[in-house]
């Protein structure tokens, strides 16, 4: 595994904030020349520290203003049941986040939708039809207070 040092942390912090930063600008920010900086970025990519580069899209501006959080309880928590649920969720584009949880519920899903009718259609046509789902509890976000894709590199 790649040992992350202080320069790597600076590189990670910079690319988390701006994935389109040039190697020259990144090198200047972290105090390296461009060639060693590019080598470090490549090593962070190859080791899986940097998984991918992506644009952060405003979901409201693309017509998906609804964020629903669905807590799902399965009938059983056997490995096969968990795997089957995870495979189904991976196929559903409406589900943008899915976490296996501890506590009363097994999964927490964040689902985006155009409107309440679209969410209801997703619920009826997909989520409730999946074998092994015992119960679903949904909460709707009224607004977003904070969202960050950047990890705090303490």
Explain what you see.
Keywords: DNA-binding, Transcription, Transcription regulation. Pfam families: AsnC_trans_reg, HTH_24. With about 150 residues, this protein is of the alpha+beta class. It folds into two domains: about 5-45, Orthogonal Bundle (Arc Repressor Mutant, subunit A); about 65-140, Lrp/AsnC effector binding domain/regulation of amino acid metabolism (RAM) domain (Alpha-Beta Plaits, 2-Layer Sandwich). The protein is built from five helices and four strands. The chain has helices spanning about 5-15, 25-30, 35-45, 80-90, 115-125; strands spanning about 65-75, 95-100, 105-115, 135-140. It has a four-stranded antiparallel β-sheet. It is elongated. The two termini are about 20 Å apart.
Instruction: Provide the number of structural domains.
Output: 2
Q: What is the count of DSSP helices, taking H or I runs of 4+ residues? A: 5
| Order of H and E elements | HHHEHEEHE
**Large-scale geometry:** elongated
What are the segments in which pLDDT stays under 50 over at least 5 consecutive residues?
Answer: none
**β-sheet strand percentage:** 15-25%
- What's the alpha carbon Rg, rounded to whole Å? 20 Å
Number of strands: 4
Q: Specify the structural class.
A: alpha+beta
* Approximate helicity band: 25-40%
CATH-assigned homologous superfamily of the largest domain: Lrp/AsnC effector binding domain/regulation of amino acid metabolism (RAM) domain
What is the architecture of the largest domain at the second tier of CATH?
A: 2-Layer Sandwich
CATH class of the largest domain: Alpha Beta
CATH domain topology of the largest domain: Alpha-Beta Plaits
Strand order of the largest sheet: 2-3-1-4
Q: Kindly report how far apart the N and C termini lie.
A: 19 Å
The largest sheet is: 4 strands, antiparallel
GO molecular function, one term: sequence-specific DNA binding
Keywords: DNA-binding, Transcription, Transcription regulation
InterPro entries: ArsR-like_HTH, AsnC-type_HTH_dom, Dimeric_a/b-barrel, Tscrpt_reg_AsnC-like, Tscrpt_reg_AsnC/Lrp_C, Tscrpt_reg_HTH_AsnC-type_CS, WH-like_DNA-bd_sf, WH_DNA-bd_sf
Pfam family, one: HTH_24
């Amino acid at each position: 595994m790649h040992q992350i040092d202080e320069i790597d942390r600076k590189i990670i912090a910079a690319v988390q904030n701006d994935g389109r930063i040039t190697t020259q600008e990144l090198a200047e920010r972290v105090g390296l020349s461009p060639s060693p900086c590019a080598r470090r970025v490549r090593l962070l990519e190859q080791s899986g520290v940097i998984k991918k580069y992506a644009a952060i899209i405003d979901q409201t501006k693309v017509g998906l203003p609804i964020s629903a959080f669905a807590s799902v309880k399965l009938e059983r928590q056997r490995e096969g049941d968990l795997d089957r649920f995870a495979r189904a969720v991976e196929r559903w584009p409406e589900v943008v986040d899915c976490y296996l949880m501890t506590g009363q519920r097994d999964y927490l899903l964040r689902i985006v939708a155009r409107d309440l009718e679209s969410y209801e259609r997703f619920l009826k046509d997909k989520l409730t039809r999946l074998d092994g789902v015992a119960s679903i509890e949904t909460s709707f976000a009224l607004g977003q207070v904070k969202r960050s894709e950047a990890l705090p590199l303490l």
